[in-house]
């Protein structure tokens, strides 16, 4: 049984009033709220266990190193990968940049990079830069007018262009649409394409088994998975990962240094220069343990029930246009009301304690593709309940009455 009220009690931020109204937090796609276990792990580290890792021979440092590496193993197990295939970064953005920089020497003007119009800017701009540096051709996978992939079209495109690299999102941050990855990745594999999947949005909701998924690289952000900000991860199939050129250089990632030459360690160490965000890594493993303690199927079923309830209610309001694929979604509702500015709706909703996002959602090419300047985005997580939806819809109706 999934007891959402018991779960909500684990998230202190959900208990507060915003503008004298109970907070209705519908911005989990931007960042999720944090369970008490994550807050406690952060405090515990700084209060008692604080020391640098991989350096000292003293007890605290050894304990910190152990906790840091255990956290890597916990998160790796969650994704069904091995610990040495997981690199800590400061977010999904840095993880993608690590890959695009690391591939610079492997690509040239005969190479083809394929991205899609569904991507967050973080999975567009680094590839544009890589194409500029190497002379590679940058192409986009066909996306239907409604923001959905036609699998057959995608497969044909991949067979025709035989890309060197394919970078694609697991779920759209703006629409919540889930990408039909299985077939697309299979087609890419047939062409020996290097594949990177942006899991920043999907990882919390779909809890992917990365070995099964079969991509070469997968990136995620801890803060969108109940964990702290300033931390993310890069999964890389080991040979692929180790074949990337070093990204940032400095201490910790080296084997030997002379004043003129350096040799580097193997992955993941060679990509983790300097002192890492130790507290965040440890707190993130607390987040993952918390998530794993909730049954995956129950979590997903609850999220889908809340999402469907919200869709049902929103569809009853005249003048609402929904852009999300409501049948294939991680729980993100992208919509507009008539031609009202999404910013005005989000601002008015905030007055009722309802937190949503408005704007282009760092997905300007997608907005252009959909023929809009921006939208309102209400994104749900497993800690949302039916009351959140009722309060959101009631507040939206009042906002609309003010705007009409
Ligand atoms: N990709 C997607 C799909 C995202 O939603 C985000 C964050 N909005 C990112 C990448 C970048 O993540 P971060 O800002 O945590 O690096």
UniProtKB/TrEMBL annotation:
Enzyme Commission code(s) on record: 2.8.1.7
Domain of life of the native organism: Bacteria
Pfam family, one: Aminotran_5
Top EC class for this record: transferase
Catalyzed chemical reaction(s): (sulfur carrier)-H + L-cysteine = (sulfur carrier)-SH + L-alanine
Keywords, sorted A to Z: Pyridoxal phosphate, Transferase
Stored PROSITE patterns: AA_TRANSFER_CLASS_5
Gene Ontology MF terms in the entry: cysteine desulfurase activity
UniProt cofactor(s): pyridoxal 5'-phosphate
Domain Aminotransferase class V: 24-392
NCBIfam families reported for this sequence: sufS
Family listed: Belongs to the class-V pyridoxal-phosphate-dependent aminotransferase family. Csd subfamily.
Stated role: Catalyzes the removal of elemental sulfur and selenium atoms from L-cysteine, L-cystine, L-selenocysteine, and L-selenocystine to produce L-alanine.
Stated name of the protein: Cysteine desulfurase
Natural source organism: Pseudoalteromonas haloplanktis (Alteromonas haloplanktis)
Lineage per the UniProt record: Bacteria, Pseudomonadati, Pseudomonadota, Gammaproteobacteria, Alteromonadales
């Amino acid at each position: 049984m999934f007891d959402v009220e018991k779960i909500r009690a684990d998230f202190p931020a959900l208990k507060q009033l915003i503008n004298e109204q109970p907070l209705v937090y519908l911005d989990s796609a931007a960042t999720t709220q944090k369970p008490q276990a994550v807050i406690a792990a952060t405090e515990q580290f700084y209060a008692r266990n604080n020391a640098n890792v991989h350096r000292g021979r003293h007890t605290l440092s050894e304990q910190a190193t152990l906790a840091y590496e255990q956290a890597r193993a916990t998160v790796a197990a969650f994704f069904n990968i091995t610990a040495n295939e997981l690199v800590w970064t400061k977010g999904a953005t840095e993880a993608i940049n690590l890959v695009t920089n690391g591939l610079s020497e492997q690509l040239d003007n005969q190479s083809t990079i394929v991205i899609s119009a569904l991507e967050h800017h973080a999975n567009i701009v680094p590839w544009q830069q890589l194409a500029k540096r190497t002379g590679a051709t940058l192409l986009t996978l066909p996306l239907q007018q409604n923001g959905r992939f036609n699998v057959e079209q995608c497969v044909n495109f991949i067979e025709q262009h035989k890309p060197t690299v394919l970078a694609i999102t697991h779920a759209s941050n703006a629409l919540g649409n889930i990408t039909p990855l299985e077939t697309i990745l299979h087609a890419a594999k047939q062409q020996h394409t290097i594949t990177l999947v942006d899991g920043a949005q999907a990882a919390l909701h779909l809890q992917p088994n990365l070995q099964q998924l079969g991509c070469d690289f997968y990136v995620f952000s801890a803060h969108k998975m109940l964990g702290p900000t300033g931390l993310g991860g890069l999964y890389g199939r080991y040979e692929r990962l180790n074949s990337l050129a070093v990204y940032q250089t400095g201490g910790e990632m080296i084997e030997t240094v002379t004043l003129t030459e350096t040799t580097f360690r193997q992955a993941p160490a060679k990509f983790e220069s300097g002192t890492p965000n130790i507290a965040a890594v440890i707190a993130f493993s607390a987040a993952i343990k918390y998530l794993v303690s909730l049954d995956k199927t129950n979590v997903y079923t609850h999220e889908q029930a809340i999402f469907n309830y919200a869709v049902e209610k929103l569809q009853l309001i005249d003048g609402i246009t929904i852009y999300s694929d409501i049948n294939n979604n991680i729980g993100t509702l992208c919509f507009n009301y008539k031609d009202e500015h999404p910013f005005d709706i989000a601002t008015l909703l905030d007055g009722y304690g309802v937190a949503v996002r408005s704007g282009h959602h760092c997905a300007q090419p997608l907005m252009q593709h959909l023929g809009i300047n921006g939208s309102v985005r209400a994104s749900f997580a497993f800690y949302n309940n039916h009351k959140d939806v009722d309060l959101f819809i009631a507040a939206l109706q009042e906002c609309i009455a003010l705007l009409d």
